[in-house]
Amino acid sequence: MSITASVRRESRESSIRQMALLRQEQSVRKYLDEAQRVLERVSVASVRRVITVLISAYLEDRQIFIMGNGGSAATASHFANDINKAASVDGKKRFRAIALTDNVPLLTALGNDLSYDDIFVEQLKNLYSDGAIVIGISGSGKSENVLKAVRYAKSRGGTTIGFTGADGNQLGDIVDRCIMIPCRRVAQVEDAHLILEHAICRILREEVPLL
User: Fold this and answer.
1) CA angle (35 as vertex; 46, 99 as ends), nearest 5
2) How far is Cα 166 from Cα 70, in angstroms, rounded to an integer?
3) Domain residues of the chain, as ranges?
4) Which residues does 111 contact at the CB level (< 8 Å), separation at least 6?
5) pLDDT per position as a tens digit, 133-164
6) pLDDT at 12 (0 to 100)
7) Which end of the chain is more exposed for a tag (fewer CB within 10 A), N or C?
8) Whole-angstrom distance, CA of residue 167 vs CA of residue 180
9) What does the pLDDT average to over 71-98?
10) What's the rounded Cα separation, in Å, for the pair 57 and 64?
């Protein structure tokens, strides 16, 4: 290959790399802009109502259960972690939160021996105590295992909370409190759920010393 051809090839490859970097940067900025617009449309009042329920749970020593599937399962585990740790204040009593997504052997036993629809409700039958708070996270609002557990909690007199997306009416219509993300894109609904979980736990930590 001649020196001229080599220089041309390197120039072309450099141009392709630069175009790829520019394209990726634009895609990232577009995603972040879309996520920001979604968050700006969230009902702050709905978040405040959930915080009020969780503060009541704290004051009354009530158990909190959290569940979800897929990315929402990860958010459920993250939420329980943050309520138990990030919302804790030295010298004050603690929140009592359990993610029903964390016991993998039990989840697989229930799913295999009974039904995937039963993996959360069967755990509640073991762990539920009067007045518990049950939080279901489902972007679609249609996850039957979440709906089934929420119905069980309501039948026992529990307080239920839903985190959903724009099409989440099935869950939203049966819970006592609901945070609905006005978006149909799964990834950005899950982003917003996690951001709001962080916001809620930060506010709980700020409020606990004042209780």
Assistant:
1) 55
2) 18
3) 1-40, 43-210
4) 118, 119
5) 999 999 999 999 999 999 999 999 999 999 99
6) 73
7) N
8) 9
9) 97
10) 8
Write out the two tokens for 108.
Answer: 């697989």
In CATH, the number for domain 43-210 is 3.40.50.10490
- Confidence (pTM): 0.92
7-26 burial: b if 16+ Cβ within 10 Å, else e: eeeeeeeeeeeeeeeeeeee
Of 191, 179, 194, residue with least CA distance to 53: 179
141: left (phi over 0), alpha (psi -120 to 50) or beta: left
CA nearest to 129, candidates 167, 157, 102: 157
pLDDT higher than threshold 90 for residue 190: yes
Q: What is the rounded CA–CA span in Å between residue 41 and residue 36?
A: 9
